[in-house]
């Protein structure tokens, strides 16, 4: 469970989040929609701990293992796809069998044939899927996913939703997306507008 109380975020004079109070229940999927610039990424960054709220609190168990797939790519163009996963495995101190899992994720997401390619040679959609594979590789109980299907065609988007439905089972997921999130993920649908979250 993650509890947000009166979370506000200002950048200079502009108030982006205007006092958000919500509870994220363990194991549920939350779909956050809202116009461009409404603060979806800002809210995810606060949940991920990358940004601090101007005021208000975010409370979560210290033992939560959280993974974040950002909207803007955090990738190294000279490093291969595989070495990105290797780096993540090292950062999270993953033990044996992570390679098997990494191969499976790449296959499920449809980018296994790019395993040895430097990221600089990948398309936007291929980078998007790598960013997701990196977030999905380690064990986690919270997944924060920012626009997981942007840059993707219908078939690749479907591969992503299928992979998330399987890999995300039992995890709390917060997904910001302009594209509709399939009903089979049974998301709680929220709209972020004017700095507040409305349940749809
Ligand atoms: N570091 C920052 N400094 C100043 N303003 C910022 C900063 N980060 C975001 N903003 C502003 O906050 C607003 C919300 O941005 P955010 O990226 O959260 O929107 P979003 O809902 O994710 O949009 P999109 O759908 O386009 O991804 C924008 O107007 C943006 O310009
Ligand atoms: Mg955004």
Automatic annotation (TrEMBL):
<dbReference type="InterPro" id="IPR003593">
    <property type="entry name" value="AAA+_ATPase"/>
</dbReference>
<dbReference type="Pfam" id="PF00005">
    <property type="entry name" value="ABC_tran"/>
</dbReference>
<dbReference type="InterPro" id="IPR017871">
    <property type="entry name" value="ABC_transporter-like_CS"/>
</dbReference>
<dbReference type="InterPro" id="IPR027417">
    <property type="entry name" value="P-loop_NTPase"/>
</dbReference>
<dbReference type="GO" id="GO:0005524">
    <property type="term" value="F:ATP binding"/>
</dbReference>
<feature type="domain" description="ABC transporter">
    <location>
        <begin position="2"/>
        <end position="200"/>
    </location>
</feature>
<dbReference type="InterPro" id="IPR003439">
    <property type="entry name" value="ABC_transporter-like_ATP-bd"/>
</dbReference>
<dbReference type="GO" id="GO:0016887">
    <property type="term" value="F:ATP hydrolysis activity"/>
</dbReference>
<keyword id="KW-0067">ATP-binding</keyword>
<keyword id="KW-0547">Nucleotide-binding</keyword>
<protein>
    <submittedName>
        <fullName>ABC transporter related</fullName>
    </submittedName>
</protein>
């Amino acid at each position: 469970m993650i509890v947000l109380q009166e979370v506000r975020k200002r950048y200079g004079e502009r108030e982006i989040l205007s006092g958000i109070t919500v509870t994220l229940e363990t194991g549920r999927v939350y779909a956050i929609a809202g116009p461009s610039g409404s603060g979806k990424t800002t809210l995810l960054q606060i949940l991920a701990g990358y940004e601090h709220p101007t005021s208000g609190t975010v409370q979560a168990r210290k033992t939560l293992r959280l993974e974040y797939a950002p909207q803007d790519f955090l990738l190294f163009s000279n490093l291969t796809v595989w070495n990105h996963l290797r780096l993540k495995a090292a950062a999270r101190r993953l033990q044996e069998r992570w390679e098997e899992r990494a191969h499976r994720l790449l296959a499920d997401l449809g980018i296994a044939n790019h395993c040895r390619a430097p990221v600089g040679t990948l398309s936007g959609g291929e980078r998007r899927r790598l960013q997701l594979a990196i977030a999905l590789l380690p064990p986690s109980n919270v997944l924060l996913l920012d626009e997981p299907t942007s840059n993707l065609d219908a078939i690749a988007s479907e591969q992503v939703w299928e992979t998330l439905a399987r890999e995300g089972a039992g995890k709390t997921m917060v997904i910001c997306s302009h594209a509709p999130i399939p009903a089979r993920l049974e998301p709680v649908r929220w709209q972020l507008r004017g700095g507040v979250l409305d349940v749809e």
